[in-house]
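Team,

Forwarding the record for the chain on the shared tracking sheet. I've put the sequence and predicted structure together so nobody has to dig through attachments.
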Amino acid sequence: MSKCAICGEDLDGDIRLLNHLMEKHGWRNPTVGKPDRNSRGY
């Protein structure tokens, strides 16, 4: 079980937690998908 640090909701696992954060709280994980070009200084 994972728990959302923002609202305290209990979720089944890390993937559910990530989906919950993205959907409910507008959160984005910078390590998923393409790297953030802005953080690389290009």
